[in-house]
Amino acid sequence: MRKVTPRALTDRPRVTVVIPCYNYGHFLAECLETVFADADQVDVDALIVDDASPDGSAEVARRIAAEDPRVTVIAHETNKRHIATYNEGLAAAEGEFVVLLSADDLLAKGSLARSAALLRAHPEVGLVYGFSRRFFDTPPPPRTGLRSWSIWDGPEWVARVTRTATNPIYTPEVMMRASTMRDLSGYDARLPHAADYHLWLRAGTRAAIGRVNGVDQAFYRVHGANMHTGEYSGDVLDVEQRHLTLRILFEEDGDRLPGAGRMRDDAYRALAREALILACRPYERGRPGAAEAEQLARLAELAGEIWPASEDSALRRTYERYAAGRGPVVPVPVTALRDRAVLHLGWRRWRHSGISPAVRSL
User: Which part of the chain is the Glycosyltransferase 2-like domain (predicted)?
Assistant: First the structure.
């Protein structure tokens, strides 16, 4: 990885922002206001793809498009689900660069210009990301001090990310070169919960990866209707989908990654460790109920499936002790304090570097 000094745009590249929408019509006006905030620096158009929303979102989108020629609308007659909706919009994008922005999320002022400037200055880069702030009702004031650009060789970035087996990118902060997106053919329907993670990793097998440092590039809205906090929530499903993502990546694109075998082993070991940590954690906070204990047992079982050597690890023995009723030696307040400290330090490292903290080997 190398840090480089940012450069300003010297032309006006075209950026298409694809906005998938399902029952988020009431967010569209605010979302689009942030999309066009950079129209003084880039030529930006928006494509809203409404997935047969029953709340009248398509009518809201059509009214907006009737008043702004930069906005076009695709409205499904029947619900096609999120992966098909994403891919349809991305396939129809006409800009040199493309952004996928959920209708409930927002862009930070200047983000399109900053990402486009990096892509323009470094033609080897196929994907740019940054930091996306989480918010509930009102987005916080953004950080505006552009510090640097990070440029990774693609396989180097893939190795860094898979070593932790976690996804360091939300989505609204990503801009991709349209040619890279076309090469990747969009999101993989086999991975309804982890298709974004898979797409970022595959991008790294084909192009360099860039990051805009020091500023907030987008705002990710947190609420009960989020795809990732609603239908597809659950630690078991999350671990299963990340395991499948990694397996597909190394089976289908491993020939593009030097040292793919070692990279795969590091990823599986890290994911198995995380599964065991997730299986242990509820016991450190109290005695889980029968239904929860069953899910925790499945996490421990998954760890063994992902990385068989984990069956002989200290973490596995800790889980078995907890599950047998020989609960944690450390008091609950102490473990809670430890978890908060680890979480906060990890978050700070992620915000600074763009890479999730490494998980220690089993």
Answer: 16-176
